[in-house]
Amino acid sequence: MKTLKQQHEEYLARVKAKGAKTLTFVTPCCGKTVEDMAAHAGETWDTLATCPHCETIYWKVATDSEIVATIPDKAA
Ligand SMILES: [Zn+2]
C-alpha cells in the first residue's frame, strides 16, 4: 500500500504535468514543508487537507500567491 506521502507526490506530479502552479508552505502540525497546488489568480481555495508527513488533518487556504494551513482546534 502506498503511503500518504507517496500519494501526495504522485498528485503533485500530475498537477505539474498539467502546468499548474505550486506553492510550498509549512504545516502547523509537524512543521514540515509541503508543496501543493496554488489557486487560480483572484480565487481562494479553502479545504480540509491531510498532512502527507504525519496525517494530521488541517484547514488549508490557498491563493495564487500563498498557502496557509491551520489546525482548526488551535486556530481559535
Ligand atoms: Zn504534519
TrEMBL record:
<protein>
    <submittedName>
        <fullName>Quinolinate synthase</fullName>
    </submittedName>
</protein>
